[in-house]
Amino acid sequence: MDMRVRIAEGQDEQPLLLWDTVWDPVEGRADWALADPSEKHNAGGLRALTALETSVILCLFTDKRCPESHPLRWLAGDDLRGWWGDGIDVRTDLGETEMGSLLWLLETAPLRMDNGPVNIPLWAETFAVEALQPLVNQGAVVRVEAVATPRPEAARLDLDIKLFGRDQQQIYERRFEAVWKQRQ
């Protein structure tokens, strides 16, 4: 038997394994990005350069299952959604929670700027902060800010997200336009 020793193994820069998920504001959806040819460890693969951006998109735009007792449960109808992976391995003993947000519940609710039966901006902010809490729990950020801005003239809601690091400096800022868009 021939034995081969790889002397340089473990010394090369290791590739990031969390593929970049990018938000397409025109389509209002997320997708994976192809790797740039300059990524020497990832030629022909998926881009893996923006782990924090990817984490934010996955946290916000993965559909979390709606609990039966949620006050907006009626907006879900017969489809409580949820991500299939949550049924496989959620380790509550390690502080893990179900992935995603309940932003999807707001898709069918009427946009209101007042304090009507469903205050869409307030709920959107609440859902966003809850969805991004795992980033705080894991120590990736220390604080999350979410501001939802109704744009009734465009029949949509924009969501501004800011994340802050241990030194209290802002490390991430992104506006997600058309998070909620009125169905015509």
What does this structure look like?
The protein has helices spanning 51-61, 120-137; strands at residues 21-24, 29-32, 143-151, 156-164, 170-181. The longest helix has 18 residues, at 120-137. 16% of the residues lie in helices and 21% in strands. It has one domain. The protein has 184 residues and is of the alpha+beta class.
Give the gist of this structure.
The protein is an alpha+beta fold. The protein has helices spanning 51-61, 120-137, and strands at residues 21-24, 29-32, 143-151, 156-164, 170-181. The N and C termini lie far apart (69 Å).
Which SSEs are present, and which pair or pack?
Layout lengths: L20 E4 L4 E4 L18 H11 L58 H18 L5 E9 L4 E9 L5 E12 L3
Antiparallel strand pairs: 1-2, 3-4, 4-5
Helix pairs in contact: 1-2
